[in-house]
Design goal:
The protein has nine helices and two strands. The protein is mainly alpha-helical and about 230 residues long. The chain folds into two domains: about 190 residues, Rhomboid-like fold; about 30 residues. Helix 1 packs antiparallel against helix 2, helix 1 runs antiparallel to helix 4 and helix 5 packs across helix 8.
Length: about 230
């Protein structure tokens, strides 16, 4: 296990265990602890630290919430940390975490500010989505398996994540998909650096090559069907 991944795993699991223990002893105090650390955009000026603390808290009534995040981090995080180096991997994780929080805040303030009860979010999902995107960028040809069954290339993992979030929205699931979107956007910006002219040159070259390939396929198709 790599250093940063190990540190995040220990921190998240230890905090979650502490929250569960507090809830067993005093449910009321547990609600206070969660209220202090959970990101609630309407009350952001009262607890600005929640932009960060929300990423270390998970829903105490859902084992799947923390399990999915920690399993994803432990599965692909070490590979990405070794490839990027611990310092750069930590930067990626922190940026994805923060952009996930910021996008959730902006979206909530613009579209759901008056919601009752106020919208809130907690969990490391934004940062984890950033790590997932990063893995797809760094190891595009790696073969992954969805639930250990369906194989797919890592470069398609972004579309899989977007598809799952879309289904969650359609189903009305209680998932902060804007946190996920923000985490993915932060990872894309950190790794691809779209403000750099070389990135757009790379996009242009890839697009031109793809268009030429499609033209060639079309010509072959016409020749076969004459």
């Amino acid at each position: 296990m790599t250093p940063f991944v190990k540190a995040i795993l220990i921190a998240c699991v230890a905090i979650h265990a502490a929250v569960l223990l507090i809830g067993f002893i005093s449910p009321g105090f547990q609600r206070i602890v969660l209220g202090i650390g959970t990101l609630t955009p309407r009350y952001l000026f009262l607890k600005p630290w929640s932009i960060v603390t929300m990423a270390f808290l998970h829903a105490p009534n859902s084992l799947f919430h923390i399990l999915f995040n920690m399993v994803a981090l432990a599965s692909i995080g070490p590979w990405l940390e070794r490839a990027l180096g611990t310092a750069r991997f930590a930067q990626l994780y922190i940026i994805a975490m923060l952009t996930g929080s910021v996008v959730f805040i902006v979206h909530t303030l613009l579209f759901s500010f008056s919601a009752t009860p106020p919208l809130s979010a907690l969990g490391a999902s934004g940062a984890i989505m950033g790590i997932i995107v990063g893995f797809g960028f760094v190891f595009p040809e790696a073969e992954l398996r969805l639930f250990g069954i369906a194989p797919f290339k890592a470069k398609n993992i972004v579309w899989l994540a977007i598809g799952m979030d879309t289904l969650a929205v359609i189903a009305g699931a209680n998932i902060a998909v804007t946190v996920h979107a923000g985490g993915m956007l932060g990872a894309w910006g950190f790794l691809r650096r779209p403000w750099n002219r070389r990135y757009w040159n790379w996009i242009r070259v890839r697009t031109t090559a793809k268009v030429n390939w499609l033209k060639m396929k079309y010509r072959f198709w016409k020749m076969r069907n004459r």
